[in-house]
Amino acid sequence: MKVLLENVIATTNITYELYMGYKSFPSEMNWICDNAWQLTLGQSMFFVGSVVGTLSLGYLADILGRVPIMIVANLIAMLGNMLTIFSSNLMLFCTFRLISGFATDSNFLMMYILVMEYMRPSLRTIGLSICIGIFYCIGSISAPWIAVLMGSWRGYLLVTSLPLSLVPLFYFIVPESVQWLVSKQQYERAARCLKRVAKINGRQVEEREYDQFIEECKQSQRTTKSAPNLLGLFKTPRLRRNTLILFFKSMVITLCYDAVSRNVQGLGISPFVMFSLSATAILPACLLLIALQDRLGRKAMASMSLLISGILISVTSIVLFVAISENNQTTTLLVTLSVIGRFGVTVAYNSGAQYATELIPTCVRGQGVAAVHVMGYAFTFFSSYILYTRTIFSPLPEIILGLLSLLGACLCLLLPETLHRTLPASLEDGENFGKNEHWYTFSFLEKRTQSVTKLTPGRTKSQSNSIDSSNYF
Predict the structure, then answer these.
(1) What is the pLDDT of residue 76?
(2) What is the mean pLDDT of the segment spanning 233-240?
(3) What is the number of other CB atoms lying within 10 angstroms of the CB of residue 445?
(4) Cα 412 from Cα 365, distance rounded (Å)
């Protein structure tokens, strides 16, 4: 096993060359060569847990609320990581990674949905992009060096898991999503949450305004069916079409991201350095979204970013193919192009994630967004088959991904615009949302006429009568 040299540790019959003294799990367990399948199996159980957990917790988030499920997800993740520290054999490792994976995606999704549902339309892109662009970027860049500083995988899991014990305090700090409360007809509790938000924001709102809010919510939901679930997204034609397009788009983005990740394997460059370099693309990608998404609109940005990311991956592969054919040094070139590819995929992913979260009705948003996310990962099953086409022609996998991206970009044109619209709350709202729009309807081409009410700034004449509580403050 050849790794960058800093320290040397001897085990039973194997000598490991450790990078900066970091002792990994495979080196401790001797899961290399003929035993490498055990690590792969353990990580696959993490994926299985992620699929089951994301769907389960997403469903519970629509039943019990966003905040409690966010807290539960973080505690499950902490439990799984802490238990992994005590893994001494394959069975324990698989079990503990399954537990950890059960919550890993829900940690992100619940936070994302909660922030989005509280942001007014004009601030959604900024709020979500700042959360990801700054904090996720800093965390991703620093993660490998925390591992190096701790010196072992056990220390890394311990240090990164302990802060999750503070998450239960969020229950006393973070108010529940008002949009979710309204969808569950908990109007009084929703009004109390709005009063709390108004107090934090230093806004003075008369009591009669809250009474008017409750009456508007009741009026808007008189025809709403009770107990909606994920299957409701497939019962009506337009909502079914939109959901399937979101599934396909998630699949393409996930496959593209997988291709970018595999392009840097086996380079001889430190995985710690490569991980940090790749993470530097996150912040610029989010800044680009802040600059363009509210100007171009969700549909234009989702379609354009998907197309450009596919082109970047295809061009990267062709350039590398030419460089390798001419026996040029490709490591620096590959790292540079990989970072650029990560930038394109990050733009497409973040744009698509916000678009999907806004399109799926509030009443099934938790399970709907979870299903979109999981479907993307489920379709990575085809990744190995796509990569196998490299035996026919070296750049062929990335060319296939480029064509899939082109198809995904075209399908995004069939989705309705969500910028400056009140988001759908019920399945009925979702079916009728953007019903009069065409594939060539873009937000930046519209002449918006604002019809502003005292309580709901940002709602326009073209919007539905559903209540979007994120407009209130």
Answers:
(1) 94
(2) 91
(3) 10
(4) 19
